[in-house]
Specification:
Strand content: 15-25%
Cofactor: Zn(2+)
CATH architecture of one domain: Alpha-Beta Barrel
GO molecular function, one term: dihydroorotase activity
InterPro entries: Amidohydro-rel, DHOase/Allantoinase_Hydrolase, Dihydroorotase_CS, Metal-dep_hydrolase_composite, Metal_Hydrolase
CATH topology of one domain: TIM Barrel
CATH superfamily of one domain: Metal-dependent hydrolases
EC number: 3.5.2.3
Distance between the termini: 31 Å
Helix content: 25-40%
CATH class of one domain: Alpha Beta
Protein name: Dihydroorotase
Length: 446
């Protein structure tokens, strides 16, 4: 019997912080109390005095590149990096090679994860213009949801047939998660700047090419279609102030039919950072202005934005160093997302309780994840211990991503993740990984 006792922790959960002990038995939170005494000689005791115990983070949007793109990353390498960042569960995207657009390919990915993932896992099923029959086969209790690219797709995953799109929205009860950028607007803008600069377009033009207009056209159309059809819509990685008018905070998250996410990079960086970081911070949607960043943070705090995610999407440095038109968009983030949000806490921009709400509780509510995202008796024991006063600097020697780099290199974080537990097993402690692949397939209460 695997037993763990966490002593003297400041437990951050459901809007409160209280000091206490947490007893874990067979991967489940068994008891939470001000003081717990366990006499078993086999119990593993973790002294958490002065530290904060958070539920494990649930990241609802990652690209771990397996199968087919494993020179960039694998489920094993990126889930390992994730647990170093306090992320204990992830939902991975379908634009791998081959794409996850059939039940057979979906189950292939689950099989890989069952053997190699350090963290708990699920996968999005990918929609196309011609796979509605496959979409309807998806078991909503066993799969996180449906991902639609309404712009910036790879392969044939751009869903640009309005009739097909409406039929998909009308036919499934799955959470439909969407990438929203208007493809025609982007093509027109790209052609304009390519005519001026050739392939070596200045990176500062990225948020001009992938503009506020491109984002708003697409996201407003998606929201309108969801309202028309009654679909359950979740809009990924908002990047503009203008889009925020499409979302509300007047009802509880569990009752919302239309929800939205913000990613770490859109909260941290602005277009002023392109000069220093170049294509390392080239993302789709683009990092935009400081004004947009401030508006996104305000909407996060007032609950128009429901969850924080990473959109972790690693590429090699060689790929990122290409000229603008050939440099891929995306970057690695899972290891540094929680430390980045804790830095905002130190700057009095957000509370610990709000960070836990947006990174742990709300993803569980939004996707109806069974018995995760909280420190509750009877729930799976996914948890993270944080020392809020243990500064460390990101450098290549402590980056855990397979790609070997981070957009946060040179950044000193005030807070350090000291322990990560997955299903009651210690998998990470103070920059040390244990070879414990204890991740489980997520299930959903639907």
């Amino acid at each position: 019997m695997n037993t763990v006792l966490i002593k003297n922790a400041n437990i951050v959960n459901e809007g409160t912080i209280f000091n206490g002990d947490v007893y874990i038995e067979n991967g489940i939170f068994k008891e939470i109390a001000s003081q717990i005494t366990v006499k078993s000689p086999n119990v593993q005791i973790i002294d958490a005095k002065g530290k904060y115990l958070l539920p494990g983070v649930i990241d609802d949007q990652v690209h771990f590149r397996e199968p087919g793109l494993t020179h960039k990353a694998t489920i094993e390498t990126e889930s390992r990096a994730a647990v170093a960042g306090g992320i204990t569960s992830f939902i991975e995207m379908p634009n791998t090679v081959p794409q996850t657009t059939t039940i057979e390919k979906l189950e292939d990915k689950f099989e890989i994860a069952s053997k190699t993932s350090y963290a708990n896992y699920s996968f999005m099923f990918g929609g196309t213009n011609d796979n509605l029959d496959e979409i309807l086969k998806v078991d909503p209790r066993k799969v996180a949801g449906l991902k639609l690219f309404l712009g910036s797709s790879t392969g044939n995953m751009l869903v640009d047939n309005p009739e097909v799109l409406e039929k998909i929205f009308s036919s499934t009860d799955l959470v439909i998660s969407v990438h929203c950028e208007d493809e025609q607007t982007i093509r027109d803008n790209t052609a304009k700047y390519k005519a001026k600069y050739g392939d070596d377009i200045p990176i500062e033009m990225h948020p001009v090419i992938r503009s506020e207009e491109a984002c708003y056209i697409s996201s407003s159309n998606a929201v309108a279609l969801a309202k028309k059809t009654g679909a359950r819509l979740h809009v990924f990685h908002l990047s503009t102030a203008k889009e925020l008018e499409l979302f509300s905070n007047d009802i509880p998250l569990k009752d919302k039919k239309i929800t939205a996410e913000v990613c770490i990079h859109h909260l941290w960086f602005s277009d002023a950072d392109y000069k220093e970081k170049g294509t390392l911070i080239k993302w789709n949607p683009a990092v935009k202005t400081a004004k947009d960043r401030s508006a996104l943070f305000e909407a996060l705090l007032d609950d128009r934005l429901d969850v924080i995610a990473t959109d972790h999407a690693p590429h090699t440095t060689e790929e990122k160093e290409n000229v603008y038109t050939k440099a891929p968009s995306g970057g690695p983030l899972v290891q540094h997302a929680l430390p980045a949000m804790l830095e905002f806490y130190h700057k009095d921009k957000i509370s610990l309780e709000k960070i836990v709400e947006k990174m742990c509780h709300n993803p569980a509510i939004l996707f109806q994840v069974e018995k995760r995202g909280y420190i509750k008796e009877g729930y799976h024991a996914d948890a993270v211990l944080v020392d809020l006063n243990a500064p460390w600097t990101v450098d290549k020697d402590n980056v855990a991503y397979k790609c070997g780099w981070s957009p946060f290199e040179g950044t000193t974080f005030t807070s350090r993740i000291t322990h990560t537990l997955i299903n009651g097993s210690l998998v990470y402690e103070d920059f040390k990984f244990y070879d414990v692949k204890n991740g489980q397939r997520l299930t959903f209460d639907r």
